[in-house]
Amino acid sequence: MTSVLLYQIAPAPEIPIISEKFRKFEEHKNDYNTLFFGSSRIYRHIIPRVFDRQMASKGYNIKSYNLGVSGMNFAETYFFIQKILETKPLKVKWVFIESPDFDLNIADENLKTDRVIYWHTMEHTLWIYQFILESDVTLTRKLFLLGEHTIPLIYHIFNISQADPLIRSFIFSQPDQNPYLIRERDRRDYSSPGEDGYLALDDEDPTYTQFTQRNQDYLSNLESYQEKVLKLIENQKNSNHRTFLKPLELRTIKEITQLIIKMDAQPILILNPILSNQSQLVIASKGGQIFPLISFNDPIKYPELYDPKNRFDSDHLNKAGSQKFTKLLADQFATYLNSKNINP
Predict the structure, then answer these.
(1) pLDDT per residue as tens digits for the range 222-252
(2) How far apart are CA 334 and CA 330, in angstroms?
(3) In sequence order, which residues have a C-beta less than 8 Å from that of residue 111 and are 6 or more positions away?
(4) What is the pTM of this model?
């Protein structure tokens, strides 16, 4: 009962990166006309100041902000977009969203963290339950995912993360079992984002070994990375891969993009230079089933984005790669605006 009462009066927990970005956006929400949402492939890849300069060179007045956050899946993105739009920004015209991969798995060590608990409201978790139940995964997998998302829901309802430390001490008898103590330690494992919401992986504090180790592993296994690029090229040439979005996937994309439309802004999907074939998204966009998609998932068309020297690891670009990617994105966006006769 005490925790439920605290839910009504306690301030929201401080969540690394997310809280910082939300505050910065709220302070300057009417300065921006373009926003970017998604995972680390948005956060670490798109440099708003570079995007704005490149768009200005094409005659467009753009002021953008990067709201991407590492590890943000499509369900959290949907929730975060809702929270941002609730601030009622007045000038937003364009909202870029990373194309979803529809993966709802949560690592065991993250289930009881503030980062996961905050978006597991009752309403949003019911939306997640519906997606799971309508998906075509096995019954065993559905039950697993339902149970996985129920844990942070319970923590959210009873507001355990904001409860008094004495209350938490009764819940967790051993310090090593207390995820809140672990979270306090992990909060130091990320540097603050830049003024425009971007921070290159290259610029993370080198003492945070999770990043340096990832880069070293990549550099030590370049042959494996290049093999994956070649496999992607082969898969894209092969017609035996899935070339359509499932009805549930289509509906989910439309539900997310509908949030943007309600605020009189235009949603744009981004398909990053990843190592998996996502031709079904490209086909759906060309067929008008989903909103415009700007795709860079093609090593033949965009070899510079798959060049090992422009990568921090197999999944992410480094600062040099992000510079190239951001300029290419701006160029493609300007081309799209021109094709629609949208004046600067």
Answers:
(1) 999 999 999 999 988 876 566 788 999 999 9
(2) 6
(3) 148, 151, 152
(4) 0.89
